[in-house]
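Structure (tokenized):
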């Protein structure tokens, strides 16, 4: 009987250590899955943040270009050629074209950020009788 008890306790110790090893393997698999999931979520949130910043910059660029276009519409020859607002550079190039009874002023308004074009707007205004007021 003593022999069988010793063999039984050896088997019990072996199955306990196998259970402990299975638990560690399962814990490592779960940890790896959680790390992978965390990496995916961080990447998604960073991408969303960058897209939000780009969308905000584009909205600001559209607003600036619209303001310059309104100014150009009021005074085609008096618009400022270059300006900088909130980190956005605005360049307005006006090209007069003489027509039969007046002048057609064409403006290209480009808004850029750190040398990269964010928004471009083309507009024009016809002024009869020569010079714009």
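Design, position by position:
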């Amino acid at each position: 009987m003593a022999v069988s008890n010793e063999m039984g306790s050896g088997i019990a110790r072996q199955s306990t250590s196998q259970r402990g090893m299975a638990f560690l393997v399962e814990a490592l698999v779960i940890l790896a899955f959680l790390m992978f999931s965390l990496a995916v979520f961080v990447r998604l949130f960073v991408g969303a943040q960058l897209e939000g910043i780009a969308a905000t910059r584009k909205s600001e660029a559209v607003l600036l270009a619209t303001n310059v276009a309104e100014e150009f519409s009021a005074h085609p020859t008096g618009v400022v050629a270059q300006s900088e607002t909130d980190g956005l550079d605005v360049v307005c190039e006006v090209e007069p074209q003489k027509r039969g009874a007046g002048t057609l002023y064409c403006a290209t308004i480009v808004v850029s950020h750190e040398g990269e074009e964010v928004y471009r707007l083309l507009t024009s205004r016809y002024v009869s009788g020569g010079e714009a007021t």
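Reviewer-requested clarification: The mean pLDDT is 87. The beta strands are 82-85, 88-98, 102-113, 116-128.
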